[in-house]
Amino acid sequence: MVKSKRFEGKVVIVTASTQGIGLAIAERLGLEGASVVISSRKQQNVDAAAEKLRAKGIEVLGVVCHVSNPQQRKELILKTVQKYGKIDVVVSNAAANPSVDSILQTKDTVLDKLWEINVKATILLLKDAAPHLQKGSSVVIISSIAGYNPPPSLAMYGVTKTALLGLTKALAAEMAPDTRVNCVAPGFVPTNFASFITTNEAVRKELEDKTILKRLGTTEDMAAATAFLASDDASYITGETIVVAGGTPSRL
Ligand code: NAP
Predict the structure, then answer these.
(1) What domains appear along the chain, each with residue ranges and CATH number?
(2) Which of 48, 67, 163, 237 would suit a FRET pair with 173, their CA atoms being 20 to 30 Å apart?
(3) Which residues touch 17 (CB under 8 Å, ≥6 apart)?
């Protein structure tokens, strides 16, 4: 039960937010009072998710935005500003993981897609959003536990997520003092994206056992950490990554 209202009067954009972690983040921030702008590639997913959030009393605008489409990124920002007049929070959550190949076996086109969606789109979206970001605004980038120690089956994806840890630090310096930039590195969460967990009981058990808390993460766990970093409760925190992975080894 969400009781605090840390985002009253705030305008929040969350990319890739029609299901999974992105939708949970939109819901959490919306229940805490934000006007939320949700987006993903497919209109029908945008409409369905917007409906779900409205049914919970959340003020929501739905916009189709494939994050690697320059025109759709611009529309996302434009429609947000046309409707709400400003942007307080951007959560960059979209990612692709198109291959399980080893790094040296990954096709050139797949490498391009990974960098394009997982890293470059975040930068370009923030470039478009920057002129509208308010004093006291905040960016949260969604990385992954795989960014700390890329596992063989997620190696290249993991490396793009490592890049987001550096991007967070560099942008925090660049966008200070008006905008804070932080990052959340989720552990494994059973969503469509992580179908290797949801479809394979042995893999699921192995990943649960790697955590200290002996369970997988939930989308709500990720939303809670994102809400903290995006809120004024974290007003003296920037350039940081919170690992939300039940104690799965990441770093000292
Ligand atoms: P998910 O449940 O599969 O949801 C993916 C969402 O992204 C959907 O709303 C999808 O809607 C949208 N989407 C996909 N490609 C997009 C694109 N190119 N542009 C815009 N929207 C797009 O995924 P998830 O597990 O929540 O993952 C969200 C983030 O968490 C990703 O950055 C992922 O790397 C990270 N993460 C996940 C896990 C995990 O175990 N699940 C662990 C660590 C990190 P449409 O199909 O309509 O586009």
Answers:
(1) 11-244 (3.40.50.720)
(2) 67
(3) 23, 25, 26, 36, 38, 39, 40, 49, 91, 93
